[in-house]
Amino acid sequence: MEDFKPEFAGKLNFYVSAVDDLLKRPTDNPTIGILLCKNKKKMIAEYALRDIKKPISVNEFKLLDKLPKEYAKILPTAKDFVNRVKLLDIPSL
């Protein structure tokens, strides 16, 4: 994890565009890009995202040592995510 850097906005914009082009179906809503960072400076994030027209957000987060029990029961595990991504059969970018 690291602090927000302006170049992260460009990378996230690239990935959101790729998902919209390669995976999004006509009935899907627009892809939303969420970038989680250790810290963000609001002014830097605002300038980095100002002219990007896609729904992209930059947020800070705090890492917990343990997932709260109420979330552990409903959220998929890391293994579940890996298995789901394998099923997508995404072409190489």
Please, could you describe this protein's structure?
The chain is α+β, with helices and mostly antiparallel strands. It has one domain. It contains 4 helices and 2 strands, in the order αβαβαα. The chain has a two-stranded parallel sheet. Helix 2 links the parallel strand 1 and strand 2. The radius of gyration is 16 Å and the shape is flat.
List the helices and strands in order.
HEHEHH
Helix content: 40-55%
Give the biggest sheet.
2 strands, parallel
Structural class: alpha+beta
Per DSSP, what share of the residues sits in E-state strands of 2 or more residues? 5-15%
Strand order of the largest sheet: 1-2
Total helix count? 4
Task: Give the arrangement of secondary structure elements.
Blueprint: H1 7-22, E1 33-37, H2 42-49, E2 56-60, H3 69-72, H4 78-88
Parallel strand pairs: 1-2
Quick recap:
The protein has 93 residues and is of the alpha+beta class.
Task: List key phrases describing it.
93 residues; 4 helices; two-stranded parallel ribbon
